[in-house]
Amino acid sequence: MAKLSSTSQLRADIEQHLKKNRQTALTASQILEGLGLKEQDRAIMLGVMKKMQDEGALVKSGQGRFGLPEKLGLVTGILRGNRRGFAFLVPEQKTEDIYISASNLFNAAHGDRVMVRVEQTKRRRREGVVVGIIERGKNRHVGTLNRDHKRFYVVPDDSRFAKAVQVAPADVNGAQPGEKVVVEIEKWARGNRPARGVIIERVGPPGTPGTDLLTT
Known about the structure:
The protein is α+β, with helices and mostly antiparallel strands. 16% of the residues lie in helices and 35% in strands. A hairpin with a 2-residue loop joins strand 6 (113-122) and strand 7. The chain folds into three domains: 7-69, Winged helix-like DNA-binding domain superfamily/Winged helix DNA-binding domain (Arc Repressor Mutant, subunit A), CATH 1.10.10; 73-135, CATH 2.40.50.140; 140-214, CATH 2.40.50.700. It has a five-stranded mixed β-barrel. Strands 8-9-10-12-11 form a five-stranded mixed β-barrel. Strands 1-2 form a two-stranded antiparallel ribbon. The protein is elongated, with a radius of gyration of 22 Å. Helix 1 crosses helix 3. 25% of the residues are buried.
């Protein structure tokens, strides 16, 4: 390809080149040369590749090489959580679900679009570990406000979202412990730090008509 095409065609060309190449991953320079592009086209190509990375269609390794997830043994899909802490990845390729233990979620949560590396197969099922969060799921949850000394937290009604959301006293917005509320996550869990949010709506005491309709 001697001439730079449209960005959509360039994306297709990048995918095709990486798919056909014998190596699992290539440097940006190798891709540029392989597509017959000029050095002046590098910035546009890297922009297209960055968007592909953001969408989970391309992976950049620690060595600065780029590869397709499937060639690197990675699977993209949506997490389906469980109240016991573990989750299953529902692959976008419509293959068998992949079991993810709580320790291998690395702060990913129910509903997130993630990338998973299959580690092993046990008891006739595939098991994996989350290696990247591509897109977060919903950030608003209905739950019950609780208080532990000076700390407030909301336990989501949806048990698939297994961890509580911490709320600063200034962000409780008048809600009282025991009330049903809507919490909006502003900072997702990271490392040992829990997710943090702010209460944006007071629904009412448990059993308030209609609260069951807000949990889905």
